[in-house]
Amino acid sequence: MVSEARSSLATKGWARFEVDAGLARWAEAAKAAALARMAEPAHRAEWLQCEGTWFVGVDTLPNDARGAVQGSGPLTGPGYDLARALYGELPLHAGQVSVTWPGYPRPRKDEDEAAFGYRLRRDAAHVDGLLPVGPSRARMLKERHAYILGLPLTEADPEASPLTVWEGSHEVMRAAFTEALAGIAPEDWGEVDLTDCYKAARRAVFETCPRVALPARPGEATLVHRLALHGVAPWQEGADAPPEGRMIAYFRPEFPGVDASWLKAP
């Protein structure tokens, strides 16, 4: 199982793990903690977007550096085990809690027609850590994540806005960024405008890499390569989920330094 998951992550850019009893218990506790935090007015005001169909939930989960929340022990499960085996014992940030409801997507606040069209047709596909900077919203590498670990917190139909990944896109992106950053010291990568490179690589991915939907249930886990192009699918008519919505907790710990690990690590 571990070797198959490691191979899938390397070749496809993602790996999925079956239900683990310990992780299912963690998910139950994390759901309760997330719902309590989501009910706070400040969090709702900041993160309830797309006309109430998406709670973005960055830094919403009140976990410690080992992933523990009130009522649970540290984060566990084979997905997290593989991530630690590949990238080391990186401290976990407060997890994102991404929640969608029927009708997703609606336009996000200040989202123009082109951006909303991209969200609707391409799942708002992106590579994490390339943040829009300045008035021109130039894409720059501001967060050097090691991996993306998705942990569902509610049961939902497969058509209820699942995570989507473009298989093999991590190697397309790696090649493009390697060329764009050639000759530049890794500590200076965060000041390079990668917009044109990024857009061209995305176009290549859409033309050559299959889009795969990765629905999952509590107790399962999805590990995604940090360079993989990924997004959130529109909610399909008739898809069912509890009133809490389709909830997924995400962890994206960052590499501790500014060396070349972001491009060179597995």
From TrEMBL:
SUPFAM superfamilies: Clavaminate synthase-like
Gene3D superfamilies named in the record: q2cbj1_9rhob like domain (2.60.120.620)
Domain of life: Bacteria
Protein name: Phytanoyl-CoA dioxygenase (PhyH)
Species per Swiss-Prot/TrEMBL record: Roseovarius aquimarinus
